[in-house]
Amino acid sequence: MSVDSVPANREFAKQIGITFPLLSDFKRTVVKDYGVFNEEQGFGNRATFLIDKEGIIRHIDEGNVAVDPTTVVEACNALQHKKAATTP
Amino acid sequence: MYPRLLLSLVLLAVFSVVAMAQQPPVKTHLKVGDPAPDFTLRATDGKAYKLSDFKNKKNVVLAIYVLAFTGG
Fold first, then answer.
1. Cβ contacts of A60 on chain B, cutoff 8 Å
2. Which residue of chain B comes nearest to A31, CA vs CA?
3. Hey, are the CB atoms on A40 and B27 less than 8 Å from each other?
4. Domain extents in chain A
5. What is the ipTM of this complex?
6. E-state strands within chain A
7. What residue ranges do the domains of chain B occupy?
């Protein structure tokens, strides 16, 4: 997700070969709700939020660390293992 | 003489922008354990995606990238 328009994201996805959909927060409401709106620059700072099935935030990466998906992938795995362990 | 000074100033400006980009002045108020704010957003496939539609179905990774056509 970014604050780019849908057509801009579409072109971006085409250029780098992304096949999954990209979300567009053109009105900057979601970046504000998630507290990552950079007012000076007018865009959302880089961040990754892991949200579980109950809608609860389970992991946050913010800033340059969010470039590297390793920690959020680990958090995803931990979440899935936890679910597997609690489901009979 | 002047071109060199101009080049230095341009480089300084570029480095300042890079330094600013590397240190985001915003820190989210959200914490692990908080409910994720709901949203509905349009996507590149023309559909609208609502976070709460995934409730009790899927875990969601919301990855916010700075701008299209930038790395990372």
1. 28, 30-32
2. B64
3. no
4. 1-45, 46-88
5. 0.86
6. 23-24, 37-38, 43-44, 47-51, 57-62
7. 2-54
